[in-house]
Amino acid sequence: MKRHLIYGRFGAADRVEVPLAEGEVATRLPFVQAKRRLDHGIGDALDDLAKLGLFPSEVAVDLLALAAHVQAADTHLSRETESQDGWSREIRLVVPVSDPGRWNVTLPLLQRLLNFLTGDRWIVGFRARPTSFEQIVSPRPAQLERAPSDSLSLFSGGLDSLIWAIDCLEQNKTPLLISHAGDGATSDAQGALMRGLTKNYPSRNLNRMRIWMDFRGWGVKGVGAEKTSRGRSFLFFAAGVLAGTALDSSFVLGAPENGLIALNVPLDPLRVGAFSTRTTHPFYVARWNELLEMLGIPGRIENPYWNKTKGEMVANCANPSLLANLAPKSLSCASPTKGRWLGRGIEHCGFCLPCLIRRAALRGNDHTSYTLANLTARELSTRKAQGQQVRSFQFAIERIRAKPELAPLFIHKPGPLSDLSPERRAALADVYRRGLAEVDQLLAEVSTTPD
């Protein structure tokens, strides 16, 4: 186990040395190869926005640069070798920004936010960008028309973000969709859904900002990669905020996620920490909104479906026929390449946690191709991947069925809910119960065995 420092450099002329703390291993993260153009997808994202007549703020560029540091560290430091307990790593970041004083006041909040999201111990520091990069975003030409986007939404390629995009379009909104793809399967799903939406709403001038950040050719010497990627949502939110600051007005960034998965209550005693993601957990979203306020960014992040199950989202979609047509093209699976060992292509495995929630939501009208097509064809072994999540759901369902009064207690297990009113906490407990009930209907005839 080692303590790691990741520090950004803006070009060859940026020679500022960052002092090492005792026991730290330092790795430089280059940000500029070509003159004045930021790498790791940031320059491309700025170009995409500029083509739409959108020019974000410098502090939003700082935020995306910080997100790049987080993403690089999170995906290139193996938890197995770089942590004492098999999970929590010690990571320090030093990020070049436009105004270090503005950022320094956010440090306690920012570190609390990152620690909660990934389960690591983060320390963050800031320094001034080199003089030649004091301004990165070009001024907006006076004669350039801006894209007609009137709202913002994260667009992951999953079923939830598809439903929100449809609902927005049916409400005569023209959302700017924000996508991040770290792999080909996710990118393909996003592209297919975007084409479907554009075809169905040809007069709406629907646009998308896309960022691809994968750090090819970069790594930490002697350290393997990490596949869990718990910090990915920090990058996703930062990309959305970048676009939001280009709208020249206050904005709301939609982060659509069904209430069951947003809470992500551990299904059994083993699903704590490593297995419980916090991508849209209410505590995490609240800390983001605090961060934006401290930075003077006039925007908020909101989950429009915080009190809805996935099945309720499907049932209430404003264009059910379009949803039925596009849903098979969406991607919910945690590991869509699982079927390769069977000679199959990219598809939903059918038995991971998000696949089971998806199957329950689409039950009776599901045209998705699943590697495990039939959950009831045989008993599923809990010693194998195909049966583990099923049994975890069965455990949680049985526990709440026996004692429904435990739901208001269990919703606190993934993280604090102290920001919320008693009424909102009660609503979360209810969506937790209803979400489990949906999956219960799916699993009613499914048998598991420890053999």
Describe this structure as you would to a colleague.
With 451 residues, the protein is of the alpha/beta class. The chain has a domain at 332-451. It has 16 helices and 11 strands. The strands form 3 sheets. A 5-stranded parallel β-sheet has the order 7-6-5-8-9, sandwiched between helices. The protein has a 4-stranded parallel β-sheet with strand order 2-1-3-4. β5 (151-154), α6 and β6 form a beta-alpha-beta unit. The longest helix has 21 residues, at 422-442.
List keywords for this structure.
451 residues; alpha/beta; five-stranded parallel β-sheet; four-stranded parallel β-sheet; 16 helices; 11 strands; 39% helix; 13% strand; globular
Q: Could you tell me the mean pLDDT?
A: 93
Main sheet properties: 5 strands, parallel
Q: Give the overall shape.
A: globular
Strand content: 5-15%
